[in-house]
Structures are given as structure tokens and as C-alpha cells.
Design a protein that fits this description.
Blueprint lengths: L4 E2 L2 E2 L3 H8 L8 E8 L6 H9 L2 H6 L4 E9 L5 H6 L4 E6 L7
Parallel strand pairs: 3-4, 4-5
Antiparallel strand pairs: 1-2
Length: 101
């Protein structure tokens, strides 16, 4: 199939069309858990341990991956350091408190 160019837009090739129409095996879903935190150094470890402990049960339920994200909203304590001790947890830090939700 020849490719036509009109006004800078190219028509898809036959290979592109076949690729688009070919069913792909579905990837197992990802569950993202977002935990807001402000000055939670005394409780964040326990929270993360409880959430991460659900991986096996989630896998049995068909969830392929558990993504845990902690958003540190300008904590002035050791919240970020405590979260950083969990290598499977993503940390997002705000330099200052952004306020309620």
C-alpha cells in the first residue's frame, strides 16, 4: 500500500492498520494508592506496612502491580526520611504545605 501525503498528514501504512486491529493480551491492572502526608513521621511506617502487606491478596484478585505514592505536603518532621526507607514506595515532596486537598 502506497503512502499518500496530503497537507503534511500521512496515511497509515498497512502494517500500522494491522497492528492497530490486532488484539493484544491485556496487561494486569495496576492499583495506585496515593497517601497524603503532613508531619506523619510517627505513623507513616505502619500505614505503609499495612498497604504493602496487601500485595499477595491483590495478586490473587488479579491486580498485577501495586503502586504506592506518598505525597509529603511540606512536612517539617522526618516523614520524607521515613518514606524513603521503603524502596518500593514513590515519594513526592511539596516544599511547603499546599493546603487542604
Amino acid at each position: 500500500m502506497a503512502e499518500r501525503v496530503q497537507s503534511g498528514i500521512s496515511a497509515p501504512s498497512e502494517a500500522d492498520l494491522v497492528s492497530t486491529l490486532t488484539p493484544r493480551p491485556e496487561a494486569a491492572p495496576v492499583l495506585s494508592v496515593v497517601i497524603p502526608a503532613l508531619n506523619e513521621e510517627r505513623g507513616i511506617d505502619a500505614i505503609l506496612q499495612r498497604v504493602l502487606a496487601q500485595r499477595e491478596e491483590l495478586e490473587r484478585a488479579g491486580v498485577g502491580q501495586l503502586e504506592v505514592i506518598v505525597v509529603d505536603d511540606g512536612s517539617r518532621d522526618a516523614t520524607a526520611e521515613r518514606v524513603s526507607a521503603h524502596p518500593d514506595v514513590r515519594l513526592i515532596r511539596h516544599p511547603g504545605n499546599q493546603g487542604y486537598g
